[in-house]
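Deliverable D2.4 — example input (structure tokens):
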């Protein structure tokens, strides 16, 4: 069974940091890119970061560039992280981990390119 499961969400004050984790299973990891998306009620789901299987390539949305870092676990190919720093209230959202075919790498921040979605983890940035 192919699935991805997120963890690590929570509430944090503005300027704080949080790390999300995603564990994938049932995938041919070499054939997939891993992405993080976020969604706020009433708005479109936004791709924020993606990474190749090797971890050598990452892409970020302009809204998080310089503040968020996507990475892969060196010891466990199933795990992908999203390190979020200097968090702002506008980062409040449900965050989703996702997997999409590597053949669609150049659109890995587009929901249309995703094959597998996690259930999401809530991140709230508030004082």
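Example output (designed residues):
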């Amino acid at each position: 069974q192919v699935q991805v499961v997120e963890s690590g969400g929570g509430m944090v004050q503005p300027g704080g940091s949080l790390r999300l984790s995603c564990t994938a299973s049932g995938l041919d990891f070499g054939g997939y890119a891993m992405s993080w998306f976020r969604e706020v009620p009433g708005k479109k789901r936004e791709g924020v970061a993606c990474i190749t299987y090797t971890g050598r390539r990452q892409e970020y949305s302009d809204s998080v560039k310089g503040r968020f870092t996507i990475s892969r676990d060196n010891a466990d190919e199933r795990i992908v992280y999203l390190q979020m720093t200097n968090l702002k209230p506008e980062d409040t959202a449900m965050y989703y981990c996702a997997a999409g075919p590597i053949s669609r790498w150049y659109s890995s921040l587009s929901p249309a390119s995703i094959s597998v979605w996690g259930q999401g983890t809530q991140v709230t940035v508030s004082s």
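The chain has a mean pLDDT of 95.
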